[in-house]
Design brief:
Protein name: Uma2 family endonuclease
Number of strands: 11
Domain Putative restriction endonuclease: 11-182
Number of helices: 5
Structural class: alpha+beta
CATH class: Alpha Beta
Order of helices and strands: HEEHEEEEHEEHEEEH
CATH architecture: Alpha-Beta Complex
Low-confidence stretches: none
Shape: globular
Keywords: Endonuclease, Hydrolase, Nuclease
Organism: Scytonema millei VB511283
GO molecular function: endonuclease activity
């Protein structure tokens, strides 16, 4: 993952273009190039999107939408999947860019699929965990194919409480109680 030495403000990031189709996250003021996702990561995100689409309207589901979070400096993340609230969907309607700004409500759920490597693991388990909690996101799921587990984090009094699911264990979501998926189904993108 390459980063820039230059510090960007959020306003500069929102207008930045390097003339390529590279994707970036803004992390503490630095542009961090996001590598292409693995096929498994994409398959997991799409499997979850389709599972949620059976329970909620498709207009509340997002892939590729950015979210501005708290950080040492300006930080914007691009989760693998988001489930919006009705209020957030209304706030995003008609915007020129699919980005959740600090003055908008938080999403109901954010899902990150962990890519291989310690740096990616640290980002999803440590940094994003604190950023998403500070942003007030009710649930944060960490789907970890390398660790063979799904971690469901539920926001309680500003901090996440953690539940870990493996194998045939059915995930329990306080926000989406009708969702009936096992960790194995998610980790194998529905092939289980």
């Amino acid at each position: 993952m390459t980063t820039t030495a230059r510090q960007f403000t959020l306003a500069e990031y929102l207008t930045y273009s390097d003339g390529t189709d590279k994707r970036y996250e803004l992390v503490n003021g630095e542009l961090v190039e996001m590598p292409s996702e693995s096929d498994l990561n994409n398959a997991i995100a799409i499997f979850l999107l389709l599972a949620f689409a059976q329970l909620i309207p498709g207009r509340l589901l997002r892939r590729g939408t950015e979210i501005v979070v708290s950080g040492f400096r300006a930080t914007s993340r691009v989760p693998d999947l988001m489930v919006l609230t009705e209020d957030l969907a209304a706030a995003l309607a008609g915007t020129a860019r699919s980005i959740i700004m600090p003055d908008m409500p938080p999403p109901a759920l954010v899902v990150e699929v962990v890519s291989p490597g310690k740096e990616n693991e640290d980002r999803d388990y440590r940094y994003k965990r604190s950023e998403y909690a500070a942003r007030g996101i009710t649930e944060y799921w960490i789907v970890d194919p390398q660790g063979d587990r799904v971690v469901v984090l539920t926001l309680v009094d500003g901090l996440y409480e953690e539940a870990i699911y493996q194998g045939d264990e059915r995930l329990v979501s306080q926000t989406f109680s009708l969702l009936e998926l096992s960790a194995k189904q998610i980790l194998q993108a529905g092939e289980a």
